[in-house]
Amino acid sequence: QVQLVESGGGLVQPGGSLRLSCAASGIIFVIYTMGWYRQIPGKQRELVATITGGGATNYADSVKGRFTISRDNAKKTVYLQMNSLKLEDTAVYYCNARLVTGQLLNGDYWGQGTQVTVSS
Question: What is the pLDDT of residue 69?
Answer without folding.
Answer: 98
